[in-house]
């Protein structure tokens, strides 16, 4: 992306930070994805964040002396309006925090009506408590970085107007959620197995999604390329048919406003029978990214869902730097889709129930249904019968298929 602005990063390193260097590298990449060239990073070791100025005012004065002119100071944490004003006054530049950068990226990436509404809701809920006393941030930015989406006119209206818009967005999202609930209920009634791809942003989920489903969804080497959940049919080597969803990527310090706004989208993953956790095996912060996703899985009450971990991009780095207890495989985009699908199939069989069934040779239609709705592992055919062995989702699929419409036999 063309760099149209310059900026510096301010960060504090307190006991709460797991890996501040990793966070700063990520924030630099986030900032550059919206056109801000980072010309310097400044980390202050502190016991706690300064309530007035985030970092100490003396530290800010030292930073100011190092630059003649910068467009933005980007703060590694979500900050208060009072902290924002203090940093602005000392550095004499526009200040945006990590949350605003992420919200701005989301506003650029959202494509569906639901995605756009969810981003706007998150932006407005972030802004409401910060409307009073917005100084340089609004007057200099206009509808620029950190305010993209709702637009300048919405930001300059009063709090009551914004609260009215928030209520309106929530009503629209409630209607969309009703449609999703009806779809989920229909899927449950049809007992369709659902798989969700989750993982850190830019881990290669969309590339894998396309490979496993022969779809042509957006796959780009950039953060948050996929915001809107996509669902397609996935057919395993045995012929078993299930559905798989590609979801929004996770990130360190994902803003709480975004988690809340995208809750219905994230609940799509929480409603899954299986999770495929995709990890970028070439990422320098692999362990940190893994921990971030596990924390979010826990916070979304998804830790009890069976999870297969796919270490992706092994064509770029095939080192085994992390060996989790969960089932895992090492994959890349150059591998045949059939190989990866077989890994998924073998993983599922560990959680399905084994079954044996016997059918007349004349009932090819039922054999076809068994192949579509269960994982058939063996067929034994004699002159009159077909013996089928395999694995089925909970619900006695095979027995119901075999017994249905027996009078025709």
From TrEMBL:
Annotated Pfam families: GTP-bdg_M, GTP-bdg_N, MMR_HSR1
Signal sequence extent: none
Keyword annotations from UniProtKB, A to Z: Cytoplasm, GTP-binding, Magnesium, Metal-binding, Nucleotide-binding
Taxonomy, superkingdom: Bacteria
Family annotation (PROSITE patterns): G_HFLX
InterPro entries (UniProt xref): G_HFLX_dom, GTP-bd, GTP-bd_M, GTPase_HflX, GTPase_HflX_N, GTPase_HflX_N_sf, P-loop_NTPase
Localization (cell): Cytoplasm
Domain Hflx-type G: 193-313
HAMAP family the record matches: GTPase_HflX
Assembly description: Monomer. Associates with the 50S ribosomal subunit.
Family matches, as PANTHER family: GTP-BINDING PROTEIN 6-RELATED (PTHR10229:SF0), GTP-BINDING PROTEIN HFLX (PTHR10229)
Protein family: Belongs to the TRAFAC class OBG-HflX-like GTPase superfamily. HflX GTPase family.
Function, in words: GTPase that associates with the 50S ribosomal subunit and may have a role during protein synthesis or ribosome biogenesis.
Protein known as: GTPase HflX
Lineage: Bacteria, Bacillati, Bacillota, Bacilli, Bacillales
